[in-house]
Amino acid sequence: MSNPILWALPDTIRTDRLTLRVPRAGDGAAVCAAVTDSLSQLRSFLASLPWVAADPSVAASELWCRTAQANFLARTDMPFLVFDRASERLVGVTGLHRVVWSTPKAEIGYWGRTGTSGQGYIGEAVRAATAYAFEHLGAIRVELITDEDNSRSRRVAERCGFELEGILKRERRAPDGSVRNTCVYARWPTESLGLAGPGGPDTSP
Predict the structure, then answer these.
(1) Which domains can be identified in the chain, with CATH numbers?
(2) For residue 104, is the peptide bond before it cis, meaning its omega torsion is within 30 degrees of 0?
(3) Is the pLDDT score of 82 beyond 60?
(4) What is the pTM of this model?
(5) Which percentage of the chain shows pLDDT scores above 70?
(6) C-alpha span between 77 and 94 (Å, rounded)
(7) Rounded to an integer, what distance in angstroms lies between the CA atom of residue 165 and that of residue 199?
């Protein structure tokens, strides 16, 4: 397998309603606004999202965006901002994390902006990012990890075709000292996706 840094991976995904693209310099203000809008909801599950414990700021969000772009180029992490194509408003974030290139496999993560729930944006984004993993990374497995009590996240997993493999009891401890159970979901590619193998169709150096 060639080094993934040499793969010509798209940095943008488009669906019927959404544009998913890798963060870049200048996105910090939009990300900070979305995090600020969603802070109380995100902080409901600090054991899974420890980064939301800190107060948001444009500077911190801008640092994250620039680091995220660098990580995408290095193929160490693959985050995508999710924009509504009609309004160009940032409605959430998804991404492929903890990629194991030797398998290959990845873990998908996501969160939606408060006020945009019920419109199916995050489900649409998760399906698109999962298809990206199968088509362009050649992934044979995509995992989805969520708190057992996070019913919204679990509904997204189930609506996007992820299978619950098991619940890890007392798997992590939240900042408040409570012990949390963790659900492990997964999906695998199917022949109907028409996969091109690792790196997709444009991987030659």
Answers:
(1) 11-193 (3.40.630.30)
(2) yes
(3) yes
(4) 0.89
(5) 93
(6) 11
(7) 27
